[in-house]
Amino acid sequence: MKVVYQSTYYTLYQSEKERCFYIDFVQKTVRMSFCQLLALRHKVLSIPIEHHFDSDLNKHGFELLQLCNKEHLFILNTLEVLDLKSLVEQGFVRLGISVNATALHV
Amino acid sequence: MKDIARQAMSIKVESMDMLNGQIKMEANASATYLAMASWCEQNGFFTSAKFFFKQSEEEREHMMKIFNFLIDVGGSPLSPEVTNINHDYSSIVDVFEHTLDHEIAVTKSIHQIVMKARELGDLTTERFLDWFVLEQVEEENTIRDILDMISVTGTEGVGLQLIDDHVGNWIN
User: Fold this and answer.
1) Is A84 on the interface with B (CB under 8 A)?
2) Domains of chain A by residue range
3) Which of A28, B43, B60, B92 has the most C-beta neighbours closer than 10 Å?
């Protein structure tokens, strides 16, 4: 497996042999197809991070993230969400299908 | 490093995001025209209602064209959420003026995606949108012609009835 991008907390890998991707979430490593990686990107970039700074909109500053057709569940704090956004944005640039380091909000 | 992501998807993710935005816009247009058809039916403009029912179907076809394109290129099309559709109009003229505004907004949005795709070097998306650019010329022209017809006919006396009858000329 080759490292595509490493952020503060997470690492995105590409497995050429299996033609898939892995993300090391520290607690566990999740195997993903490309479609699942796209779905992760959508979910992560759709998280309204500004809500984390407003106790009326996000009381506890946590985010629930379900991945790979509800196979995995993660609870992320604000810093982890920001880091995962960075991993997704930079990872897709490294994969060659995103031009901008700052992806569009989806 | 082997290009697995590129093998799976043939356009840029930024283009995919914008096309998903356009899917939402087309769905919104389809729902808006359905609301207009409802208004026309309730206010006795039965030919205009038919016109808007057809427009609504066309917008959905546009949406599906983009949706299927995203599937073909290996992207991830998103089923759009459509809310806040206006059902209140002050007159039939108001309905068609809103229609023109809506079409202009759609044209601008498509042009922005074309320009961004060009900037990204995403020729696949740029070429795909050629059809939409020309389609919008036709859409805008149809509504402009109807507004011209309304202006010539006038809304006094039997004018409103004549306007509704004439709208039938633009139902293919």
Assistant:
1) no
2) 2-94
3) B92
